[in-house]
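Table S7 (text form). Paired inputs.
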Amino acid sequence: MKKATFAGIMTTTTFYILCGCVGYAAFGNNAPGNFLTGFGFYEPFWLIDLANVCIAIHLIGAYQVFCQPIYGLVEGFCNKRWPENKFISREYAMNIPFHGVYYLSPFKLVWRTAYVVVTTLVAMIFPFFNDFLGLLGAASFWPLTVYFPIEMHIVQSKIPKYSFRWNMLKILSGACLIVSIVAAAGSIQGLATDVKTYKPFKTQ
């Protein structure tokens, strides 16, 4: 599992760095948000379509994973707040061929569907999706991807304070914090520029 995780992270990191650094080096601020169609050409069609299918498969799976904490939080709160409500607490057994028994909750069906619809509408309303996504990524990158894992590793491995390894990890954390701050500043600047020509449901 550790080797598979390492290989996956290294692969995605390599592609992200190539897209970010090489794209910016080649096009500067004019680098398109969508590398598949942002350059004005759509051929070969089969390659663009295949890439879009891969993106859709990736996002469908990732969306479910990232939404589970929100689903669990809301559903747990509602079950504690209204334990006697049958709409919230009741589940109906459904026999699905080749799968077995599946328990369907009307509340989960309605709530999760409504959540997906609302988030989709919000995403469509924001035409400056790339800058908004960049701001969210910058805000979450350092604390969730760098700071907390490094601090947990230091505590778990009992790394002595001010040792060479401890200092290197702290320098790495500080450097990534600077990267996050710079990325957030760039995203805020992009949002401020996009708001001036804001039109709902219309991409820039």
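Next pair, protein 2 of 2.
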Amino acid sequence: MRRTKEEAEQTRRRIMQAALRTFHRRGIARTTLEQVARAARVTRGAIYWHFSGKQALLRAIREDVSLPLVDQSDFTLLDAAAAEPLERIDRFLRDLLDAVAKDEHTRLVFAVMSFRCEYVGELASELEEYVRKNRRLCNALTRVYRQAQRQGAGLNGLRPRLAALDTLVFLAGLLRLWLLDEHGQLGMRRAARLLIAAHVKGRRAAARPDKRAASALRKTARQGA
């Protein structure tokens, strides 16, 4: 029985790997389960044995990467004994970049979810899940920035929630441009760590932003909270 379970898990993993590479090459909308089955060298029936359809297959691929990263990010950000607050944010950003840079599987998943997926129809719920996880991350960042503020960080004049949203925007743009700059035309892959350092350094500053801009940002944050 153990061997049967192990073989079933191996088949499931092979299907997920084949689907990921096919999604990356063709895009999710243009990929059929028949194409995934051929790439994995299994029947369509084998796919349906493990997954109810394309959406379930995509979710399994995403969670295979995102759940460990979310758990690790929570540990890195919220472990107050590990380092001072802004150092934890710096480490979180660097660890996430390293996960994408050093692991091909993680990199492909991020690329598929960023550039090969249309979040409509049966995949609309995946976008809702993406928003939910970003909200969770924003809440964690807010708590850390609040700790940093209590310890004297100026946050460049931003309130903790706005600083957290600013970091989310920075992170989303950083990862997307890093993935796009595969051949180095933008220099993102050389500059990414310097940009992270500059971003975190800016959180230590106490400069005040324009009052009208700050008021608009606070209003936006209240509406999204």
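The chain has two domains: 1-51, 55-209.
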